[in-house]
TrEMBL record:
This is AAA+ ATPase domain-containing protein. Residues 49-196 form the AAA+ ATPase domain. It comes from Lactuca saligna (Willowleaf lettuce). It comes from the Eukaryota.
């Protein structure tokens, strides 16, 4: 009854060198990696590990990537599930999945648990203030609250689960139940912002390593002229540029291929006039 199960990557293979353009304290992340590499040392020194770390920021800016990089740097298994996978109307299914997820991660500790879109299961509880009378709605709400309670129980019991780091990601922190944000639950919060021009260039450079780019391409032109583009979109841009280059029968990606790819990804009324060379 507790399907679907978490997707586990023995090792994610992702490292901090794959993450670019995010101005967050690398030391803060390194500390988590150090803990995962040697939880006993922290225990011996009497240092309390963080219970949970909340990664917060807009879609496509690298929350999942950062989570995978923490596990990858430490070389530990990564248990990934989406918040929506815990939302079921059937009583007890969501909480059983939570129990199962934590149990499996503890057996294989040190390890990382990552729940993406955590807002789907951890929205603010409504309690007696709910004015909805619909039975199905109430049943679903109650079930979600039971699931959230189970998550809180697991986080509270983390001292017995040494060597497991719990990471959650959201782009709607405002929707989260305040109980989850209390110290001892998500006691660290890392804000991941959309990249600025410098960040966009660094992200393009990371993804340029994966495609065949002509030496003549000046990526800084694109970085400067694509405000608001997320890391995910910039990664997609270089993939698209590679396809355009193949179609144009170029041996490597040229500046004009990247420009054409921008055009292809910038559609409809949102299309902007760019001078991309
Ligand atoms: P969502 O909220 O939609 O789940 P997210 O913030 O978790 O988004 P990711 O899934 O980490 O975003 O990003 C998707 C892909 O975009 C990554 O696998 C990577 O290829 C690329 N990407 C995003 N941000 C970065 C970044 N900062 N550096 C390098 N690549 C990035």
């Amino acid at each position: 009854q507790s399907k679907p199960q978490a997707r586990v990557d023995g090792s994610t293979g992702v490292t901090f060198s794959d993450v670019a353009g995010i101005e967050i304290a690398v030391e803060e992340l390194q500390e988590l990696v150090k803990y995962l590499k040697n939880p006993e040392l922290f225990d011996k020194m009497g240092i309390k590990p963080p219970h949970g770390v909340l990664l917060e920021g807009p879609p496509g800016c690298g929350k999942t990537l950062v989570a995978k990089a923490i596990a990858g740097e430490a070389g530990v298994p990564f248990y990934q599930m989406a918040g929506s996978e815990f939302v079921e109307v059937l009583v007890g299914v969501g909480s059983a999945r939570i129990r199962d997820l934590f149990k499996r991660a503890k057996v294989n500790r040190p390890s990382v648990i990552f729940i993406d879109e955590i807002d789907a299961l951890a929205t603010r509880r409504q309690g007696i203030f709910s004015d909805k009378t619909d039975d199905l709605y109430n049943a679903a709400t109650q079930e979600r609250e039971t699931t959230l309670n189970q998550l809180l129980i697991e986080l509270d019991g983390f001292d017995t689960g040494k060597g497991v780091i719990f990471l959650g990601a959201t782009n709607r922190k405002d929707l989260l139940d305040p109980a989850l944000l209390r110290p001892g639950r998500f006691d660290r919060k890392i804000r991941i912002r959309p990249p600025n021009a410098k960040g966009r260039l660094e992200i393009l450079q990371v993804h340029a390593r994966k495609v065949k780019l002509s030496e003549s391409v000046d990526l800084s032109v694109f970085a400067q002229n694509l405000p608001g583009w997320s890391g995910a979109r910039l990664a997609q841009l270089l993939q698209e540029a590679a396809l355009v280059a193949v179609r144009n029968k170029h041996e490597s990606i040229l500046q004009s291929d990247v420009g054409e790819a921008v055009d292809r990804l910038t559609v409809g009324p949102k299309r902007v006039a760019l001078d991309l060379g």
